[in-house]
Amino acid sequence: MSGQTYGHHTAHERAFTDGLAKRRLLVAKCPVCSSVLAYTQRLCPDHPRAGLEWCTASGQATVHTFSIYRIGYADREPPYAVAIVQLDEGPRLSCALPAEEDLRVGMPVFAEFDSAGSLVFRTQPRRDQ
Fold first, then answer.
1. DSSP string, 5-32
2. CATH number of the domain bearing residue 99
3. How many domains does the chain have?
4. Which of the residues 23, 24, 34, 78 could staple to 113 if both were Cys, CB 3.0 to 4.6 A apart?
5. Domain end among 41, 56, 71
6. Same domain (yes/no): 52, 76
7. How confident is the prediction along the chain (129 residues), in pLDDT tens digits per residue?
8. Which domain holds residue 82?
């Protein structure tokens, strides 16, 4: 997600992708009720005229579901997991994760930016380490 372009983005979607380019994971928030929305949602369903403000997400998330890929696609070296993670703020994102033996639904993960500037999610370090 580092400066990569996938088709045409609306101004709303560009706010999210511009944040990624600046190494910030942003979430859209309603200024009236503080509901946090997925980046594809353009308005709060309860306050459609209020607009949205963009806030930096904590980066903390939980694995919602995943699938292990044992055949490589694009530049990915197998095995790897494609997962849907739920940010602590509420929205869900898709991502790739290392295919660890103990990867499971409900596992905590965190977002960070790698040396190339791409957003990646990693499993949380164990508390006993």
1. --S---HHHHHHHHHHHTT--EEEE-TT
2. 2.40.50.840
3. 2
4. 23
5. 56
6. no
7. 444 444 566 777 888 889 999 999 999 999 999 999 987 888 999 999 999 999 999 999 999 999 999 988 878 788 889 999 999 999 999 998 888 778 999 999 999 998 888 889 998 764 544
8. 60-123
